[in-house]
Amino acid sequence: MTEPTSTPDNGTVGDGQFRAACQYSHFAYDDPIVHPGEPGRSHLHMFFGNTEVHAGTTTASLVDSGGSTCNGFELNRSGYWTPALLDGRGNTVVPEMIILYYKTKQPEVVQRMPQGLKMIAGNASAETFTANQYLFWSCGDSGGAYDVGNRIPDCKGDTINATIVFPQCWDGRLDSPDHRSHMYYASDREVCPASHPTRLPQISILLYFPGQSSIAGWHLSSDRTGSFNSGPGATLHADWWGGWNDEAMDLWIDGCMKAARNCSFGQTGTNRILARLNGFQNYAGPYVLPLP
User: What is the arithmetic mean of pLDDT over 115-130?
Assistant: First the structure.
């Protein structure tokens, strides 16, 4: 699940950066954070990371069972899920690449992420949101975003990107009644407040969908639930449930985060790299799949 490497990182950058590539795992009408123990209760989600996340998932089952569709495989059994992207013709649209980006601008105080921590980020229920650095749609590959906004963009055949960023200041609880208030967003150089004093790596989920000639009918599964009908992509959000192997996490926390190194896919700042998914680190299957 790790491999030797002669390139442990990409050098010192003044902050800590660690990236991992993932592929989608499965689709299900489950949400083990919002609707635990209630299979079929949720809108359709796309799951990645741990391959066995479902409505009955517990922290113990997350950490101790399942494969993983991310670099390092079972070393990262965390659960990640987002609302499914639908094409309006009875199909789901699968990302060609999913990038996990863990980073910190304060490497001197960042701490390890606890197993079992739960978080939700984004706009799960309102009819719109203001695009900002924590939540947006855009066009273009990684590092070249344009047409940033709060709706699924028509990129005229270019890559469609969705970005969801989680808060990084923590109050010590693994969850809270609204699954949000135990976490706090702080700016890059802002000190975490006394109410949420522990600074964790900030997680960004970047979804890259293949370019299309038309996005007519495209929407998220959470955009249309019951009488609720928002604009296409307005309910962009994501869930995260921590299940990293502690020893593997310590490699990149110490070697990338605390050492203020720039680590690309699976690099840990050491002579070990998390195993690659494949040669291109992308999803090689069909991008359109029928609804489950």
Answer: 93
